[in-house]
Specification:
Layout: H1 5-30, E1 35-40, H2 61-65, E2 101-106, E3 110-115, H3 122-131, E4 136-137, E5 157-162, H4 166-180, E6 189-195, E7 202-209
Antiparallel strand pairs: 1-2, 1-6, 2-3, 3-5, 4-5, 6-7
């Protein structure tokens, strides 16, 4: 049977979107509070510690909408000459032995993708900024800092999505995993998902998906 890359890419993108939709339900109907999910490129080791994401206060929805087009959908752009601004001076990925991961926080009215500095080389951040609309470094838009979030040394590369835009988030994930980081489209990733806080629901704990 001939391998169809486009069909497989569509399947993986739908898989990613399915998890975002599942987390929407868990956040609002099960945990009744903020949750997170992380997609790792290898099995997490030992007891899982919650990432830098922490519970947030309710943000103003109009701030979220600033990153969206007129249809309310996060858009793709291709602009090799785009001004990308000043990138952070330090904290970047040092070598290929470091884990690659994409993490999301799910809040009351929106959810966000985070790529902490150690997940990216500077050229990769530039590629994302030129090819996908709406990404920013938190230091440049501190109004999107989550309540109690410790970002010292990791300065998240963040993008905000509104609920109903899970497919767009999945397309961004697929772009990063398969085009920027060049994982094979059938790569096995590992999912960890939980609500924030002690005693809160926990779901996947390094579950493989491929």
């Amino acid at each position: 049977m001939t391998f169809d890359y486009g069909q497989e890419l569509a399947r993986r993108t739908a898989q990613f979107a399915g998890y975002s939709k599942k987390m929407h339900h868990r956040t609002h109907e099960v945990a009744h509070g903020p949750c997170f999910i992380i997609f790792d490129d290898r099995p997490p080791s030992g007891e899982f510690d919650e990432p830098g994401l922490t519970e947030s206060a309710k943000p103003a929805l109009e701030l979220v909408m600033a990153g969206f087009d007129d249809a309310g959908i996060a858009s793709v752009t291709v602009d090799d000459d785009a001004e990308i601004g000043e990138l952070p001076d330090e904290g970047w990925r040092q070598d290929d032995s470091q884990i690659r991961y994409i993490q999301f926080s799910f809040e009351e009215h929106w959810f966000c993708m985070d790529l902490p500095l150690p997940t990216l080389y500077p050229a990769e951040a530039e590629q994302i900024l030129r090819r996908r609309r709406g990404f920013f470094y938190l230091r440049d838009r501190p109004e999107f800092t989550l309540n109690g979030e410790d970002v010292d040394g990791i300065d998240p590369f963040r993008k905000i999505y509104i609920y109903g835009d899970e497919e767009s988030a999945a397309e961004d994930m697929a772009f990063i995993f398969f085009q920027v980081w060049r994982f094979p489209v059938d790569w096995r990733f590992y999912v960890t998902a939980s609500a924030f806080g002690p005693g809160k629901p926990r779901w996947e704990r390094g579950k493989p998906i491929e």
